[in-house]
Amino acid sequence: MRSIFLFLLAGLFEIGGGYLVWLWLREQRIVWVGIAGFIVLSLYGIIPVFQPVQHPFGRVYAAYGAVFIVLSMFWGWMIDGQLPDFRDCTGAGICLVGAVIMMWPRLN
After folding, report:
1. How buried is 1 (Cβ within 10 angstroms: 0-12 exposed, 13-18 middle, 19+ buried)?
2. Tell me: the pLDDT tens digits for 73-84?
3. What is the pLDDT of residues 12-70, one digit of tens each?
């Protein structure tokens, strides 16, 4: 459960921070929006460190990629109003299955 929470939190920080930078540069928002985005993005970089120690950096970030894909799809739906289609959902589901396989505890 802790890993799932950390993946979700990291995803929200990465997507949210990136979105703030996007708003600043693409939609000409004030510079403080961009600065807030950079701060949130830097916090995103810290969150994965709290994953269980048995998972090395590469595995954590690879599995996180799947979570990022799913969260980005939901962000696009909820924030940008872009409803995911069948292929979006199928691809995201395949990625999540891969993440679960990667993060499954090893029997050493």
Report:
1. exposed
2. 999 999 889 999
3. 999 999 999 999 999 999 999 999 999 999 999 899 889 888 888 888 888 888 888 99
Q: What is the Cβ-side half-sphere exposure of residue 61, based on CA atoms within 13 angstroms? A: 8
Residue 33, token pair as written in the block:
């929006």
Where does residue 32 rank: exposed (0-12), middle (13-18), buried (19+ CB within 10 A)? exposed
Structure tokens at 96: 């999540």
Q: CA-to-CA distance for 100 and 34, rounded, in angstroms? A: 34
* 39: enclosing H helix or E strand: helix 31-46
Closest CA to 7 of 96, 107, 108: 96
